[in-house]
Structure formats: structure tokens, C-alpha cells
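Anyone? Bumping this.
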Amino acid sequence: MEKQQNLSKNQKIIFDLIDKSPEPLKAYSILFNVQKKGINAPLQVYRALDKLVEIGKIHKIESRNAFIACQNSSCQISKATAFSICESCEKVSEISNTKLSKYLSNFADEAGMKYSKYNLEFFGLCKKCKSK
Amino acid sequence: MEKQQNLSKNQKIIFDLIDKSPEPLKAYSILFNVQKKGINAPLQVYRALDKLVEIGKIHKIESRNAFIACQNSSCQISKATAFSICESCEKVSEISNTKLSKYLSNFADEAGMKYSKYNLEFFGLCKKCKSK
DNA sequence: TTGCAAATGTTATATTATTACATAGTGTTA
DNA sequence: TAACACTATGTAATAATATAACATTTGCAA
């Protein structure tokens, strides 16, 4: 089910960087880090990011304008994402909880409208920060 | 329970504008609209927005960098927000569904971590756009 | 009526993201 | 293989979003 071989040169460079990072990366920090590999312009980064998001290899943390690699092997395409974000150290983890994703994927509002996609961000203190 | 009287001059001008708007407003569109009222600089807008978000009078739609007035009278402070967003016409509505908010407020991840805050954005097509 | 916290005003600048246009690679199929 | 469509790349310029730093003013409680 892995599509990594399909990635183009720039997409691969940028995915690898994000995938290795322990924390979400911002576009211009990515740019800075890949300049030695010949990626010089913001647009090159944003184009790769757009594509990687589209195919579900990475997710955008909207509240932080930052990107992390998808941690969820069953998440072929990023239509249902949930994250936990520590407001102290900014650690971000992807939540893969079957009950939660089922609940949200099946959620219909008062008018019975169902949704094709959602993004959920939880905020709090991670274990480490809580015990400080 | 209304706190509107507490709003400062700039906060009130900006809240009124957002509250009257049928759609989420972006910071610089707000700036443009309040320049006749003597608010000249981005920072004046952002400061008011920050405060209004903090006290729960408005919410930020993170995926759109835009702001809407809180529709939920019981939402004194914006710690638990959910929105439906039409990907075609960009209509945004706040969802106030007791079951959903209870479910999410009580959600604890694998490690048992509970969260003090969340923001959920659903995407799909609104009724009008679906029938087109 | 002083003193503090919150809010305002102003300039400059940082950060995030897109437009526009030209070129090159990749895969399909006639 | 030639023609085509589609995707990706390269580059420059600029738009859109957001914050830093500093000076001043206002509201209100002790």
C-alpha cells in the first residue's frame, strides 16, 4: 500500500525531512533545510507540501501552520485526522483511535448533513509538561 | 451572561462587524472595513481579535484564517469548538451538538491523557451546493 | 490620587503563501 | 516513435497573514 516510490525528487526530499523530524516543521524551516539539496524557492516547498498532503503522506497542523508525517498506516488519504498538541512544549502526536474516527466519520448534524472530511485538534499538556 | 459591555472601543467595533457578517471575515478584510472608524493598523485588529477569541466572543476558523462570531450562547469561552465548512461556497456554521461536545470533552487517548481544549472542523458540501 | 493592568497608537518587519510564466520530465497511446 | 496530456520543476515577484518593539493613554480599584 506504500506509495513512496511514486514521489518525485522534490517531494521525496521534503517528505524524508518531515518524516525524520520529531516535531512538526514549518514551510520556511523546511526551505532552509533543503537549500543544500537544490530547492531554493518557497514555491517548490509549497508545491511538494500540497501534493504530500493530498496523497496523505503528511498532514498540516492548521493551528500551527506546520507539517508532520502521517503516523497512521491505514490513513491512505488524509480525510479524517486528529491530533494532540501540547500547549507547553508544542509536541504534536497523531491520534489513531478507531472509536473516535468512526464516531466522527459517521457524525451527521441536525440537518442530517454528513461530511467527507474532518480535522480535529486537541490541546492540553503532555505528560512531561504536566509533571513539571 | 452577556459580556458585551466590557468590550473596549476597538473590540466592540470589530466584534460588531464580525457579528453582522454572514461569513467568516479575514483580518485584513476587517482592517479595510474599520479604517473609516479610525482603526488604521493590522496590530490594532489582531489585538482585538486575540482578545475576542480569548473571551469566546468569536472563533478562529483555523483552516481559513478567518473569524466568526460565536453562535453558541452557552459557549462562554472557546474551549470546545466545532464547525462545518462547505468546500464549495465556503459557508461556515458553528455546530452545537451536546452529544458531540460531551464525547469530545471526555475523550481520553490511549495514555489516558485528557485535553483542556479542542477544535474540530468538518468539511463537505452544504445543502445548496450539493443540489447543484 | 496614585498605581497597575489593559488597551491604544504607530512604525517597521517577520512569516506564511500564491501568481504568473517558462521549461522539463513521465507516461500513454496512436 | 511521435504526439499528446499531465505532472513536476525553476525562477522572480508579490500578496496575505501576523508579530516585535516602543511610546502613550485609559479604566478602574486600592
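Late reply, but here is one note on the structure posted above: Chain B touches chain A through 28 residues (CB under 8 Å).
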